[in-house]
Amino acid sequence: MSQENVTTVRNLYDLFAKGDVPTVLAGFDPEIEWNEAENFPYADGNPYIGPNAVLEGVFMRLGSEWDYWKLDIGEVLDAGESVVAMGRYQAKNKTTGKEINAQFAHVWKLRDGKAVSFQQYADTQQVVDAVSGS
């Protein structure tokens, strides 16, 4: 099951990169618990419960506040009951024009092929600086 979970998470990232948000959301459990990293601008809604909360509180904000938001996925690791993805965010803020190239780690938990929880760890300072223009 662990390798299946790694494949599922990789597929979610591929779908997100293609802009297929409806299919990404369909891969979430109806009660997914999504947490942004502490001090990340979108942590104000933690925890986001359910796909619609993630869509409105995270994905729509990424789309409206950034010219682009790309994830460069490095490793995706089987961690027993979890899947850990590591990589970098590459983005440009619409308001300030500042770009980021920030590292991240995401910890996913899956059940029956659906994501039931997500925890982001990230270089929040770069994102905060880009948003504030610092």
What keyword list fits this structure?
single chain, 134 residues, alpha+beta, Nuclear Transport Factor 2, Chain: A, six-stranded mixed beta sheet, globular
Explain this structure.
With 134 residues, this protein is α+β, with helices and mostly antiparallel strands. It has one domain (2-132): Nuclear Transport Factor 2, Chain: A (Roll). 34% of the residues lie in helices and 43% in strands. The protein has a 6-stranded mixed β-sheet with strand order 2-1-6-5-4-3. The longest helix has 16 residues, at 2-17.
Structure summary:
With 134 residues, this protein is of the alpha+beta class. Helix content is 34%, strand content 43%.
Describe how the helices and strands are arranged.
Elements lengths: L1 H16 L3 H6 L1 E8 L12 E2 L1 H15 E14 L2 E12 L5 E13 L2 E9 L1 H9 L2
Parallel strand pairs: 1-6
Antiparallel strand pairs: 1-2, 3-4, 4-5, 5-6
